[in-house]
Amino acid sequence: MQHAPHAAIRSVEDLRGPAGRLEAVLNTGHPQAPYAALVCHPHPLGGGSLHNKVVYHTMKAFSSLGLPVLRFNFRGVGLSEGSFDDGRGEIQDTRAALDWLDANLRLPILLAGFSFGSWVGLQAGCGDPRVQGLIGLGVPSLAEGHGYSYEFLTQCAQPKLFVCGAEDQFGPRDAVEAVLRRAAEPRRMVWIEGAEHFFQGTPSSPTPKLDQMHAQILDWLRVTFPALNSAELH
């Protein structure tokens, strides 16, 4: 089967962060794409990588709109150099990925992250004028004994989408809603019923919910960034 030109994928060899080379892949986009996208993966110590299912489905949502999408491994993951730095170095890695996109594609950026990657990505992207929109998926409040703080969101003026499972074991709805309600507008909060942290099913609703997550991302992108509705991008 012949694929559209913007469905191609290539390895990125020249992305470097403060700890060294970062393994990365770029799904190339339509030549007239109005934005580029960056997706951050979940916790490295929990097996998170650029190949995570939620990260992959998020990439597919961006790619379906014709956007080039960069995924990368944080330091110490896969072929990325360095070692885990409890979020501090991973924020620097994300900023290095933003720098790479800016230098190579010269497009405004949409940034998404899942779980630990949402906490890191939101911090790296908030206030960066190159980042036009932010997506937090499976936003954690307490995982593996680590508490996550989001005070910075009160000053984060970019459009924001938060999508979480209503039965997320690492982000109980009441706790996460209390945090996200304090985020600066504009923001949208979506809770997917019958979904746990990884957007898989629960005993009461066993079917995976990744398609619902994908649909919520697309809906928000199309409403918030009308340029993505151009027929020539699809």
Give the helix tally: 5
In the residues, how many domains can be counted?
A: 1
- In order across it, which strands form the biggest sheet? 1-4-6-5-7-8-11-12
Q: CATH superfamily assignment?
A: Alpha/Beta hydrolase fold, catalytic domain
Number of strands: 12
Can you tell me the overall shape?
A: globular
If you average the pLDDT, what whole number results? 95
Strand content: 15-25%
CATH architecture: 3-Layer(aba) Sandwich
Q: What is the compact description of this entry?
A:
The protein has helices spanning 53-64, 88-105, 116-125, 173-180, 210-224; strands at 9-12, 16-17, 20-21, 24-27, 36-40, 69-72, 109-114, 131-137, 142-143, 146-147, 160-165, 187-192. The chain is of the alpha/beta class.
How do the strands and helices of this protein lay out in sequence?
Elements: E1 9-12, E2 16-17, E3 20-21, E4 24-27, E5 36-40, H1 53-64, E6 69-72, H2 88-105, E7 109-114, H3 116-125, E8 131-137, E9 142-143, E10 146-147, E11 160-165, H4 173-180, E12 187-192, H5 210-224
Parallel strand pairs: 5-6, 5-7, 7-8, 8-11, 11-12
Antiparallel strand pairs: 1-4, 2-3, 4-6, 9-10
Helix pairs in contact: 1-5, 2-3
